[in-house]
TrEMBL record:
Known cofactor(s): [2Fe-2S] cluster
Recorded superkingdom: Bacteria
Keywords: 2Fe-2S, Iron, Iron-sulfur, Metal-binding
One term of GO molecular function: metal ion binding
Sites where the protein binds [2Fe-2S] cluster: C82, C87, C123, C127
Pfam families assigned to the protein according to its UniProt record, in alphabetical order: 2Fe-2S_thioredx (PF01257)
InterPro entries according to UniProt: NADP_DH_HndA-like, NuoE-like, NuoE_N, Thioredoxin-like_sf
Note describing how the cofactor binds: Binds 1 [2Fe-2S] cluster.
SUPFAM superfamilies: Thioredoxin-like
UniProt protein name: Formate dehydrogenase subunit gamma
Coiled-coil regions listed: none
Protein family according to the UniProt entry: Belongs to the complex I 24 kDa subunit family.
């Protein structure tokens, strides 16, 4: 995973301009901004609102509604732990709590070394392999605390 670029208003304006021709361009623009900067920079919200003739509140509402949009860059590795009922019933909460305590962070936070971000998701479609997680986009199933911790440590130092 390549690190995000620092905020650049000119680059953001170019990204916005490249997507304005699309029907319903707000989400594609937000995804492109996040891909470029690792998050949705606060200063990009009024730029996008102006370009789409929407209020800042409307754009902010879209950014805060969708869990995949970030306000700060994620760590080098992203761990998404399923918190849906099937995974919870088979121990995902205990495994995730142990991981968060081990890393010294909470849900949606990044470790101080910026290597790992842990996020909650509410169904990965891996119920038959519950409890499950995505580690840098790769599905991992039948987790317990030890297996989750080992998988995270493996990618954390890679």
């Amino acid at each position: 995973m390549t690190p995000p670029l620092p905020w650049d208003a000119r680059q953001a304006a170019e990204i916005i301009g490249r997507h304005l021709h699309l029907e319903g361009p707000a989400l594609p623009i937000l995804h492109a901004l996040q891909a470029a900067f690792g998050h949705i920079p606060d200063d990009a919200v009024p730029m996008l609102a102006d370009a789409l003739n929407l209020s800042r509140a409307e754009i902010h509402g879209v950014v805060t509604f969708y869990h995949d949009f970030r306000h700060e860059p994620a760590g080098r590795h992203t761990i998404k732990v399923c918190r849906a009922e099937a995974c919870q019933s088979l121990g995902s909460e205990a495994a995730a709590t142990a991981l968060l305590e081990r890393l010294g962070i909470g849900w949606g936070e990044t470790t101080a070394d910026t290597r790992v971000t842990v996020e909650a998701v509410y169904c990965l479609g891996l119920c038959a392999c519950a409890p499950a997680a995505l580690i840098d986009g790769d599905p991992v199933g039948r987790l317990d605390g030890a297996k989750l911790a080992a998988a995270v440590e493996e990618v954390r130092w890679s």
